[in-house]
Amino acid sequence: MKIFVARLPGTPVFDPAGDQIGRVRDVVVGLRIGLRPNVHGLVVEVQPRRRVFLPITRVRRIEPGAVVFTGRLNMRRFEQRATETLVIGEMLDLSVEHEGEPMTVYDVAMDEIKPSHWEISQVALYKGRRRDPRIVEWEEVSGFDKLQKDQGAAGLISAFESLRAADMASALHELPSKRRIEIARALNDVRLADVLEELPPDDQISILGTLEPERAADVLEEMGPDDAADLLHDLPEEQAAKLLALMEPGEAAPVRRLLTYPETSAGGVMTNEPVILPPTATVAEALAHIRQQDLTPAVAAQVYVARPPTETPTGTYLGVSHFQRLLREPPSTLLGSVIDPSIDPIRPDFTLREVTRYLANYNLVAAPVVDELGRLVGAVTVDDVLDHILPEDWREGTDDHDDRTA
After folding, report:
1. How far apart are the C-alpha atoms of 175 and 165, rounded to whole Å?
2. Which residue intervals of the chain bear CATH 1.25.60.10?
């Protein structure tokens, strides 16, 4: 049985009872001098964003769309050993040689030699920019043992293409620093912005610092203003000011406004791009706006009603209409008549503790933020609050080293 490894990322992993416990993120192998690499196992991501090790001896079968294992899965966090190599993270895009000719690794294949024993058997190679790979035997290729200054990123990005931004961020976070930066720099501005929003602050700063200032400013423009402001808050003041100056004025303006608020206040964590409509808009228009695919569920859960202008800071704030209420009303109904009068707005200077209590008291996923002039300046969502009240290392989990014997 032969499987090309680049097709595995994102494949669901099922336990013996048929329950999905995670998804494949990588394949762990051991390189051997003069021999084909042994496959040690799979790196599986389980919730919440924890990577664990699944020994290949526990894998019952691998089929399109599913990996099924037997026995018990050790939930300790995976840690790569010095003698191990990650196929997706480290082998793809390597520059190697085949018959004296320089080539690039596009994919590798693993074969089940006997039950529960897998080896890397073949390598898919390409030259230059062509994407019609040549498949050759492992023994015909040299160069996998070389440390390379600039490995490239096309193959790994292709393998991760279907991943959500949060999953790709998790995958990048687990890569060696050099590889993580190579991949991040090769992403287009929109994709990199989406991924940066999901990364821990240290990774954000590290990646942004490797970009040319003009490109870093372009990426910040593609991020949500609240996420861009959070990142700029973490940068040295001089660097943040330089990047703001390089951003387009229209993109920088909302970020500058957010930076005027304390980082741990309602104004500091809010988004200034909620769904805002005038009272003369109809329910049909409101539903069309909250159907936008790029809105998070928390932002799409309500429509804020304000006098023009309807961009923050708005005209006089009037109230909020919840999407459940909108679904019950005739499409031609005006928003001004379906405002919830029981929801009072919060002030930008509310602390995170006050915002958390407010959301909990009213069972809300978002709250309007209104300034002293009665203008809507943004909305705080529950995910904004969680990002700031969870421990900084919440993405890491709290486990010790991985234990391959459990």
Report:
1. 16
2. 188-260
Tokens of 43: 């790196």
Tokens 């599913």 belong to which residue? Answer: 66
Q: What is the pLDDT of residues 26-54, one digit of tens each?
A: 999 999 888 999 999 999 999 877 899 99
CATH architecture assigned to 188-260: Alpha Horseshoe (1.25)
Check if CATH label 1.10.10.10 holds for domain 276-389.
no
Encoding tokens for residue 232? 């700029």
What's the Cα-to-Cα distance from 31 to each of 38, 40, 87, 120, 253, rounded to whole Å? 7, 10, 11, 9, 52
pLDDT for residue 405:
47
8 Å CB contact between 24 and 11: yes
Q: What's the confidence (pLDDT) of residue 147?
A: 59
- Over the stretch 255-268, which tens digit does the pLDDT of each residue have? 999 999 998 899 99
A 10 A CB-CB count for 386 gives: 12
Taking the model in full, what pTM does it have? Answer: 0.71
Residue intervals of the chain classified under CATH 3.10.580.10 are 276-389
User: What is the Rg, in whole angstroms, of the alpha carbon atoms belonging to the chain?
Assistant: 25
What are the tokens at 330? 């005739």
